[in-house]
């Protein structure tokens, strides 16, 4: 009877000791992994060229009237040989920005000439208002709640001098499957950006994963349900990769896992453009190991912005 009891106990213990399949086994690297990454990189480069390469200036708006144009007397001095002496005024009142066009200036909104004052929706909205004067575009950008005038000029020196993107070779070892460990309650985390402004990001937990035999954790921000935005540094930051941070997106899968493909880690726009505002990694997202995957450092050093614009 004693022997029978021992066998029964052993049978009961064995299932509890048996390990499940490794995360990578449930989400294996697809055979066309390299082609998928190349396709992602091509789209990323096209989007970044459109959204960030042409940024030519970022001017904070003070409460009240902010005059703008090429004349030295303006609050906002706009460069460019074809820029009029005045394009009008940007009036900040209680967080709302109103544009008042100068007489005779052909500034357009949705291809219609602006002839009367108009309230501008900023770029925190998917329906932002973009003013256009020739090839130059203007939009209200908010950082830490503070409004600024962002200028895009495809013929400006920053756009003309852009040297492109450089990537590490695609390495499947840097595609890892992590487990999402959910917090008891979602939290709002204050995050400082490269301009010293503080924005708030929603976070719901951490991702635990193994990379090159080492167990690591990262805290993602939730941009929409089951969509993760990760801002991180690693041992290569400031050497092989950009000093401030790199970004990575991932999805929360139905089984509670997420695929982190560091081959798609990319530089924030502040790596090549000083007029962009980029979040700085929170302390728990500063990893010790080098992650030699994704985008390399921009070949030209662009100093981080000083306090103010």
Which helices and strands, and how do they pair?
Layout: H1 2-17, H2 23-26, H3 33-51, E1 55-60, E2 64-69, E3 76-77, E4 88-93, E5 96-101, E6 108-109, E7 112-113, E8 118-119, E9 131-133, E10 136-143, E11 146-152, H4 157-160, E12 175-192, E13 198-211, E14 214-218, E15 221-224, E16 227-232, E17 246-251, E18 257-261
Parallel strand pairs: 2-3
Antiparallel strand pairs: 1-11, 2-4, 4-5, 5-8, 6-7, 6-9, 9-10, 10-11, 12-13, 12-18, 13-14, 15-16, 16-17
Notes on the structure:
The protein is mainly beta and 309 residues long. It folds into two domains: 23-51 and 163-285, no CATH class; 55-160, Tumour Suppressor Smad4. It has helices at residues 2-17, 23-26, 33-51, 157-160; strands at 55-60, 64-69, 76-77, 88-93, 96-101, 108-109, 112-113, 118-119, 131-133, 136-143, 146-152, 175-192, 198-211, 214-218, 221-224, 227-232, 246-251, 257-261. Strand 9 and strand 10 (136-143) form a beta hairpin. The N and C termini lie far apart (83 Å). The model is unreliable at 1-20 (pLDDT under 50).
What characteristics describe this protein?
single chain; disordered N terminus; 4 helices; Tumour Suppressor Smad4; 309 residues; 2 domains; 6-stranded antiparallel beta sheet; mainly beta
Q: Percent of residues in helical segments? A: 10-25%
Q: How many domains, in number, for the residues?
A: 2
Give the distance, in angstroms, between the N- and C-terminal Cα atoms: 83 Å
> Which series of helices and strands comes N to C?
HHHEEEEEEEEEEEHEEEEEEE
Instruction: Describe the main β-sheet briefly.
Output: 6 strands, antiparallel
- Look at the helices and sheets and give the structural class: mainly beta
Low-confidence stretches: 1-20
Radius of gyration: 25 Å
């Amino acid at each position: 009877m004693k022997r029978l009891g021992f066998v029964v106990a052993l049978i009961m213990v064995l299932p509890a000791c048996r390990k499940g399949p490794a995360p990578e086994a449930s989400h294996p690297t697809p055979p066309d992994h390299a082609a998928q990454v190349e396709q992602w990189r091509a789209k990323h480069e096209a989007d970044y060229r459109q959204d960030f390469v042409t940024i030519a200036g970022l001017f904070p708006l003070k409460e009240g009237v902010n005059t703008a144009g090429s004349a030295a007397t303006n609050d906002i001095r706009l460069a460019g040989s074809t820029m009029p002496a005045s394009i009008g005024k940007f009036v900040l009142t209680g967080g709302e920005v109103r544009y008042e066009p100068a007489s005779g200036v052909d500034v357009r909104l949705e291809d219609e000439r602006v002839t009367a004052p108009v309230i501008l929706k900023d770029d925190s909205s998917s329906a932002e208002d973009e003013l256009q004067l020739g090839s130059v575009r203007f939009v209200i950008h908010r950082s830490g709640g503070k409004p600024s005038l962002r200028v895009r000029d495809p013929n400006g020196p920053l756009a003309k001098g852009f040297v492109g993107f450089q990537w590490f070779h695609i390495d499947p070892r840097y595609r890892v499957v992590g487990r999402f460990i959910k917090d008891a309650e979602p939290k709002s985390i204050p995050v400082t950006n490269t301009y010293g402004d503080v924005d708030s990001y929603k976070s719901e937990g951490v991702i635990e994963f193994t990379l090159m035999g080492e167990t690591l954790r990262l805290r993602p921000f939730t941009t929409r349900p089951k969509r993760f935005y990760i801002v991180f540094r690693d041992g290569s930051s400031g050497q092989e990769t950009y000093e401030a941070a790199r970004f990575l997106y991932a999805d929360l899968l139905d089984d509670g896992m997420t695929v982190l493909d560091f081959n798609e880690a990319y530089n924030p726009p502040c790596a090549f453009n000083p007029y962009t505002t980029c979040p700085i990694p929170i302390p728990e997202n500063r990893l010790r190991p080098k992650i030699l995957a994704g985008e390399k450092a921009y070949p030209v050093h662009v100093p981080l912005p000083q306090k103010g614009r």
